[in-house]
Amino acid sequence: MVISERIRKALNNQLNKEIYSSYLYLSMATYFDAEGFKGFAHWMKKQAQEELNHAMKFYSYIYDRGGRVELETIEKPPSKWEGVEEAFKAALEHEEFVTRSIYDILELAMEEKDHATVSFLKWFVDEQVEEEEQVREILDLLKKASGHISLIFQLDRYLGQRE
Ligand code: FEO
Question: Which ligand 1 atom is the nearest neighbour of the CA of 95?
């Protein structure tokens, strides 16, 4: 069964949001590199890569269901934050926004009784729990380390080990 135009558009739009997520995290990487936080920059580069993988999952799914992908403009992300904690806070807020967006498409798919799309989106529902939790954990550590630059550098080294 070919996907409805409404669902195709929503998925296509989500593909754009995933690429924007990649762009946003790459921008955070540029900020961290400029500030001398190589580990945080490395973590963000890995995250940017992961977001591109998410985008490609939407790409493949749209074609698997007989749809057509149309690439849209990618918004320019911010390039500066007040500090490390503020950048990760912005990352968490962004992930919460992405989660809401996935839920909106899921509700649309349920409304249209498009079970295949509901099933496809379940992976993203679980992935979002993981993504939010990861960033929330880092943010908690940063809050605890607040004002102690040596602890922040320790965390920077730790996140620099992300595979
Ligand atoms: Fe693809 Fe981090 O949401």
Answer: 2
pTM of the shown model = 0.96
| Largest pairwise CA distance in the chain | 57
The tokens for 15 are 């593909």
Ligand 1 close to Cβ of residue 94 (< 6 A) = no
Read off the pLDDT of residues 108-144 as tens digits, 9 standing for 90 and up. Answer: 999 999 999 999 999 999 999 999 999 999 999 999 9
Confirm or reject: Cβ of 21 under 6 Å from ligand 1. Answer: yes
**Residue 150 C-alpha to ligand 1 middle, in angstroms?**
30
Q: Sign of the CA dihedral 130, 3, 57, 30?
A: negative
Neighbours of 111 (CB within 10 A): 10
Return the structure tokens found at 31: 């900020």
Q: How many CB atoms lie within 10 A of CB 54?
A: 22
Residue 26, token pair as written in the block: 């790459």
